[in-house]
Design a protein that fits this description.
Elements: H1 6-31, H2 36-50, H3 54-71, H4 76-88, H5 92-100, H6 105-114, H7 120-138, H8 140-145, H9 148-161, E1 169-175, H10 176-190, E2 194-199, H11 206-220, E3 224-230, H12 239-247, E4 251-255, H13 261-264, E5 275-278, E6 282-286, E7 304-305, E8 307-313, H14 315-331, H15 337-340, H16 343-346, E9 357-363, H17 371-382, E10 386-390, E11 394-395, H18 398-409, E12 413-419, H19 425-432, H20 435-441, E13 444-448, E14 452-453, E15 457-460, E16 463-467, E17 471-472, H21 473-478, E18 481-487, H22 489-503, E19 506-508, H23 511-515, H24 519-532
Parallel strand pairs: 2-3, 3-4, 7-14, 10-12, 11-17, 12-13
Antiparallel strand pairs: 1-8, 2-5, 5-6, 6-8, 9-18, 10-15, 13-19, 15-16, 16-18
Helix pairs in contact: 1-4, 4-5, 9-17, 17-18, 19-24
Length: 535
């Protein structure tokens, strides 16, 4: 199926924004019975008085548009759309652009991260990654023995994320909320020295209060408890929840607090990571936040289908290092090395642990490369037999779309599992706007009907990726995320089994029926795509 011409999409985006900005105020003023004719006469008088300055204003405005082009040079489509808005709305367009358009925070955030002095452990891991990369590049015979996909992805992530391959690990797949919270709370209760938690969303509900009580108890027992939460993702948490924790001795800090979170929540860089590290020995990472919703208690979404990992071994130190960097960013203080990596956990992992290879990869404004994005791209383009993906939000850029279509056309078994109901209206319809061209290329698309699927999983020829990153541009280029890449067929087989179980509760989409879908669905998909391209 032919993609829509870029110019049409760009122009439609600009016209949509302009009409929205022009018509909404007129509608509201009409409701309030404001004298629109009087306002028009006042504006006309103002224009006649100052029309001599018009050439100078237009010159300055042209310079402003040139600056806009430079600011947005990473995405030409967004640049052209905003230029049309700025030309058609000379005053309102500027204000609209300053609020919605530029991604101005990343440089400052990256700068602040760059000023942080890496810990001894972070430096050691980066050195180990460099040594592993040098070793793999120099061993031609070893590369021949390794399957092409693990070798390529492993090398890429060693190079761009400096994340070493952890070779001794015990990984437990936790399917859904009950298994995850039982394991997490059990390990928190057993912690003797440190509890480090970092979550995008913590809710002040039954499961959230249970966590609070547990953390308060551990702090009173003398365990060092540190908690990070995203100020926007957890904006309903409430000050009393945080104060109770602090009164009990828990160190609690928000990540990048902002004003008016409801209005600005989609336009800021957010920490979307979910990390738990207990005594430096056990780590958790995956898709679940803290709240009753993740136990299936949301009456609108129903059963919550998600996946988390429990890790013991070398990979825990990598999760701990990500947490320590975020803690330093929020608290402006380092964590003592003996608290980050206890002596018994800092040595080489016991040989009793299986040789499960994995890499913990973080990405966001604190990194030079979009490591998770590039890791996903590597898995997709390297797959030769099977590529199964589960994601709640699917709004990727053109490169990911082209890679998926090319893989399917090359004969790879490409399957995409998505939700059948929305928890974010715009993203849901933007996701569905991408499906026709995928179906036309041979990608099989399934919509989960057993509730809401929220897992973030890529399975490609025996390699698995599980973590916090959705397959959308916000996760892959804007948010702070963390993802595990696991090179182990046993773990992948377990995740494949879950995937097939999910397909048993899903409905496969048909291209013919999609082409005859109602007009209102087409409109919602187009609107979702236009809005998502600007957020």
């Amino acid at each position: 199926m032919r993609a829509k011409p870029r110019l049409v999409t760009i122009t439609a985006t600009a016209v949509f924004i302009v009409l929205l900005v022009l018509l909404l105020p007129v509608f509201l003023l009409g409701i309030l019975h404001v004298d629109l004719v009087g306002i028009a006469r006042t504006l006309h008088s103002f224009f006649l008085r100052w029309q001599g300055l018009l050439p100078h204003v237009l010159t300055l405005y042209a310079v402003l548009i040139g600056v806009i082009v430079l600011l947005e040079n990473r995405n030409p489509d967004r640049t052209l759309a905003w230029i049309l808005v700025l030309v058609l709305l000379p005053v309102v367009g500027v204000l609209l652009y300053l609020f919605l358009g530029p991604r101005i925070g990343k440089g400052k955030i990256h700068e602040e991260y760059a000023r942080q002095h890496p810990s001894r452990w972070k430096a050691a891991m980066e050195k180990r990654a460099t040594e592993q990369l040098r070793f793999l590049r120099s061993r031609t015979r070893l590369k021949e023995k390794l399957e092409p996909l693990p070798w390529k992805t492993m090398t890429l992530l060693l190079n761009i994320s400096k994340s070493p391959v952890a070779t001794r690990n015990h990984v437990t797949v936790l399917t859904n909320g009950n298994a995850t919270f039982q394991a997490l709370f059990r390990d928190i209760a057993a912690a003797k020295r440190t509890v480090h938690l970092e979550y995008f969303a913590i809710s002040n509900d039954s499961i959230g209060r249970k966590l609070k009580e547990l953390l308060e108890r551990k702090a009173r027992e003398g365990v060092i408890v540190r908690l990070l939460y995203d100020a926007v993702g957890s904006w309903k948490l409430g000050p009393q929840y945080v104060q109770d924790l602090r009164d009990a001795g828990v160190a609690v800090y928000p990540f990048l607090p902002v004003s008016f979170p409801v209005l600005r929540r989609r336009f800021n860089y957010r920490n979307h990571r979910k990390i738990a590290v207990l005594d430096g020995r056990v780590g958790f990472v995956g898709g679940l936040n803290i709240g009753d919703t993740y136990l299936g208690k949301n009456r609108l979404l129903g059963f919550w289908r998600d996946t988390h990992l429990r890790i013991e071994g070398e990979g825990v130190a990598q999760l701990q290092t990500v947490f320590a960097s975020d803690w330093l960013f929020c608290h402006k203080a380092t964590i003592p090395e003996e608290e980050l990596h206890p002596e018994s956990a800092s040595s080489t992992a016991p040989t009793t642990l299986p040789r499960t290879f994995l890499q913990i990869v973080s990405s966001g404004p604190d990194t030079d490369w979009s490591a998770i994005f590039q890791g996903y791209f590597s898995l997709i383009t390297s797959a030769r037999k099977r590529l199964w993906i589960t994601t709640p939000y699917f709004v990727p850029d053109g490169s990911i779309l082209m890679a998926l279509k090319t893989a399917a056309l090359n004969g790879v078994d490409v399957r995409l599992l998505l939700p059948s109901k929305p928890d974010h209206f715009i993203v849901y319809w933007a996701t569905r706007s991408n499906l026709d061209e995928l179906l036309a290329s041979g990608v099989r698309v399934f919509c989960y009907a057993g509730g809401f699927v929220h897992a973030k999983i890529v399975l490609a020829d025996g390699v698995a990726s599980v973590g916090t990153a959705n397959m959308d541009i916000r996760s892959l280029e804007i948010n702070f995320e963390v993802q595990s890449f696991i090179y182990d067929r046993t773990i992948t087989a377990r995740l494949e089994k879950d995937f097939l179980n999910d397909l048993g509760q899903s409905k496969e989409l048909d291209l013919h029926r999609r082409r005859h879908r109602p007009l209102h669905e087409r409109f919602l998909e187009s609107a979702g795509r236009l809005f998502s391209s600007q957020l």
